TrEMBL record:
HAMAP family: MreB. This is Cell shape-determining protein MreB. It holds the Pfam family MreB_Mbl. The lineage of its organism: Bacteria, Candidatus Roizmaniibacteriota. GO terms for molecular function: ATP binding. Belongs to the FtsA/MreB family. One of its GO terms (biological process) is regulation of cell shape. The keyword ATP-binding applies.
Amino acid sequence: MFFRKKIGIDLGTVNTIVYVEKEGIVLNEPTVVAYSIEDKKILAVGNDAREMLGRTPGSIIATRPMKEGVIADYTTTSAMITYFFKKALKGSILWPEVMISIPGGASQVEKRAVVAACKQAGASNVYLIEEPLAAAIGAKIPISQASGHMIVNLGGGTTEIAVISLGQLVVYKTVRVAGTKLDEAIIHHLRKNHNIIVGERTSEDIKIKIGNAFIEEKKEPKKMEIKGRDFQSGLPKIFEVDEVSINEAITKPLKLILEGIKEVLSQTPPELAADIVDKGIVLSGGTSLLTNVDRYITYYTGVSSFVVDEPLFCVIRGVGMAIENLDSFKEAIR
């Protein structure tokens, strides 16, 4: 008897996480590919390629093939999925069954691109599950009940906001603003206000260490020393930045996410809205680890919100549960 392996993939803009049936999460690597310009040969994927970001010579490009949650570079994505299959299945790709998460508002073209990339990488059947549903399943929310649950999945490329009832998305919105936009905002702010240029990796470090969505007046602000390049002289420079300045930098993208949440709440049927006020807003995804993001959302919406345990693995846990129990989650799968 021949058993096909079942694999779940959370193909994110920043990280790709792979789940293998009966083994759990086997791989969590950056969604980065490095290839040579001349022959388009893939040189590195994942962790090795991330080390090269912003450090490559002219003949090599290190890039993120996913932009805002969808495939921006088809060939590179397909090669990357093949690499992740091989690594997760320890070399043997025997036509696995694959379930992959997609943004709630993905177009037909975007969905077809994901399916085609997986098929090209060696998958037999490809199932698609919408990210907010996968996140809700992973957060152990009883989605099949006739009551409203609101989940906000703050990822790297997109923020998925959805109200779920009876196993379906009732109202949803994909805001194409999330972790990477916060990084870009920090880069822009430092260049404009402090005349210092930093790269992607440094801005991500700043966000993780001293990024704060909601600053309390009483506390002493955290500070951090950063290394970059002086915008005017072009020389390397060491500079100290504090969380108040970084909070100022990320205000604009955070407001866009907040507007998306308010829009979804305003379109929610009143009975479901009442359920959400009772239960609160569930936050998942890597960007929900940003300090005080739950307090920020609570303060501006008036609805209590909380971050789930291990928010980074929420979507992949949901994808894993759905592929291991395909029959129970038939409605959720495309």
